[in-house]
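Researcher: Go.
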Amino acid sequence: MKYHLASGALAALSLAGTANAFWRMPCRGRTALERVDPIVDPGKISSHAHSVQGSGAFAESVTFDDLRSSNCTSCQVTQDMSAYWVPSLHFMYANGTTVLVQQDGGMLAYYLLYGDDPKAFPPGFRMLAGDPFQRNFTGLAVPDPAKPWTGKDVTQDALRLKALGFNCLHYSVNPPEGTLYRHFLPDKDFLDENCSDGLRLELMFPSCWNGKDLDSDDHKSHMAYPDQVITGDCPSGYETRLVSLLYEVIWNTQAFKGVDGQFVLSNGDPTGHGYHGDFITGWDEDFLQSAINTCTSESGEIEDCPLFNIQSEADTQLCKAEVPEALADDNCEGPNPTGICGGVQVQYGPAYATMGSSNSSATATTAPSYTGSTPLVPTLSYQTSQRSFASDKYGGGVTIEAVTGVTPAPSPTPVTTELIGTTTFTSAGAVYEVAIEEVDVYVTETATATAAAKHKRHLQRHHANRREHGLLAQ
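Model: Structure:
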């Protein structure tokens, strides 16, 4: 089976400080599913569960040296002993019983090389993105205004809210929505009707560092977002640009189509506004800096970096962290008739959540309610006119919105695949063609291309009846 893609050939950089080089770190295994968070709750049991990828040394308290000393990682590059974690997604039946939603393909951690001279994470560096207590999107337009953003849209508070993405996947109908396009969790009716291939949760971490602190009291204030979240300029006091980190996790929400209930994150959040993630570096700093300087392929594939030692997906599944004795009977995977593990309450907001525990009830504590312009049921239309295809076999892919005012790249010719038929997408902004897929693909370059390039990769489908492709454009 082959995809025949036609797109602009690496159009000239249209934004100061942008880059077209990156790699996508596949962490296919899950190191742990447990109520542990060594950043927020060091040395004790966390209030809610996390899906953890990376070093097998993950624990209630963990240091850089601990991560480095592990004999395994659930990521495919064996030099990466970092720890990556996000709240797990659960389905709550009408009677309050919860089960874990299947996580398709583990996690993808994107290392995006933005900035003039991005730096490696120093030893001991850690950070948190998102706010587990957030339940609203007050004061900001839905959908986002066209870039470049200005005014209230570039405050750090606004950028943090916009660093979350809930990407509806339905390959037989439309290409996926753009990265960080929708900033809240669609309700179940919308997911059932529109997202036949699941939901891709996305989290962008801040990449602007104050240049001195490895952590901070809130685990955030030593970092800041550039003014366009992924791209753009760093604010004063945070001029050191680190390698940019973005998480993707795909959840098989379609498995619950037609079933009475709701989806809820492990921190008791059914809105998505409280999605968050944590990172502790486990890279050798010099090695990571060499990878940043050397691994500048436009494919995003780890196989195209000569420095990486790559293990099989099967081996990533073998790396497991030790379960704390206090959690031996914790039932986070379910079925759990008492609700979310840890007894976390479901809180809709819009008020700031308390994340209190209550084992006496597995029902929502507050009726669905929103303030401002955010609707409970998303009504955003699909914006495909500024995007071109690239894909990962599990449905991963990054889309970075074009900024107005740049010179348009030539329009790509129609995209034809055996899976979705023939359709046409026109690029109104500068288009990057970046193949981040494992498919048999022929790429015909336009714009500055002088010859056609043939790229062939093997597609392994994660479901016999699922269709795989993602997006990437700038």
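Model: Residues 20-381 form one domain.
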